[in-house]
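User: Could you write out the 3D structure of this protein bound to flavin-adenine dinucleotide? I've included everything you need below.
Assistant: Certainly. Input first, then the structure.
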Amino acid sequence: MDSFDHLADPRIVAAAGDAARRIAARAEGESESDSFLAGCIDDLRDSGYLRIIVPERLGGLGGSIVDVCVAQEKVSRAFGSAGLTANMHLQYLGSSLVSGMWPEERLDAFLRGVTEHGWIINNCQAETELGSPARGGLHHTTATRAKGGWRIDGKKSWSTAAPHLTHFAVGATVRADSMPEHLGQFLVRRDAPGVRIDPTWDALSMRESASHDIVFEAVHVPDEDVIRVSPAGDRYVPPLETAPWHGLPFAATYIGIAVAARDFAARFAATRIPSNLGHPIGDLPAVRAKLGEIEALLFASRRMIFDTARDWVEAKAPREQVAAQVPMVKYWATNNAVHVTDLALRITGGFGLMESNPVERCFRDVRAGLIHPPLDDVTLATAATLAMREFQH
Ligand SMILES: Cc1cc2nc3c(=O)[nH]c(=O)nc-3n(C[C@H](O)[C@H](O)[C@H](O)COP(=O)(O)OP(=O)(O)OC[C@H]3O[C@@H](n4cnc5c(N)ncnc54)[C@H](O)[C@@H]3O)c2cc1C
């Protein structure tokens, strides 16, 4: 398969390769216990992967969106849930570096913690009652004024890697005298009193991702750990600069999982010799057609991801145009990943259904790609609006 490593910083390619090797070796053993994901996070930390996005002045490798996409494909190819965990950390930090949401000094201090102490964070926004926060709406989790800071009460769901993170970025509805209600953001330490993990995660996809509920009961967040509270109650509107981070790393993550399914299917096609046939099934036109289609889908998806990321970094195309393409890239990559794993399962037959090989896991894992924002229905509705715009008054 073509490599796109040449597009990325060699130091970041090396860190991703190292992390992927460690995680793949770990997955050869037992992957079902809670300690598996904790071990994968150690692998990400020990390979230097958690800091690839941190600016060089703060001890990191200063990765761009291109670097992160190339690297995420590699790590996710090794194991989906580990890739998703890494993705949540990197895309949140990548976006935070340009979002203007964090006070600058606070973000620098946090990023120093990533390089010096191996801190790992996730953006914990989703709630059962709210559904996808990407559709807007105030959160049930609340932030009320407390001495020297804020008190957080509520619950977050689908919080990837929750038990193994060091920090959570938590969205909460700010309720304070003299401030209109609005959505604030708070940095919460995993070990803060009042934080509890409810082990609710029993999903079809990303089973090893420990995307459990986090319960906050009178959790104190000191003023210095406020990411954003607007005394005027202004709604936060992400600047254009955050656009590639809201879609491209997810696209690369899920395509990485599809590549892993392809790896197994290609090896199977080349080596499986049923006694009724007497030669590898990869010689059969029907199998070759499926494997060829997988290659076509992966090629188109990878080109789309890496070229769009490169367009963003090189800034040769108008920023608004590339930003508008990002949801389309995520749409194609995640839907193609579903299609690829379906074809891989058809090639591998009854063997593919077995938990003992990775196609079964990849087939389940890629379904989750459809649920992350940007959401397909929003992407397609926006595309339809744009298509009609030049013909409307
Ligand atoms: C593996 C995995 C890991 C995740 N990790 C995290 C994480 O770390 N942090 C985090 O914050 N979130 C995370 N999420 C949550 C995810 O991003 C969603 O927020 C969450 O799954 C809720 O969205 P939903 O579509 O499932 O539910 P809902 O938003 O309730 O939607 C349910 C259904 O109704 C439809 N629907 C709902 N509202 C509308 C509407 N207004 N218009 C049209 N259709 C609508 C949806 O399309 C969907 O089909 C994760 C999810 C998964 C699957």
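The two ends are 47 Å apart (CA to CA).
User: Perfect, thank you.
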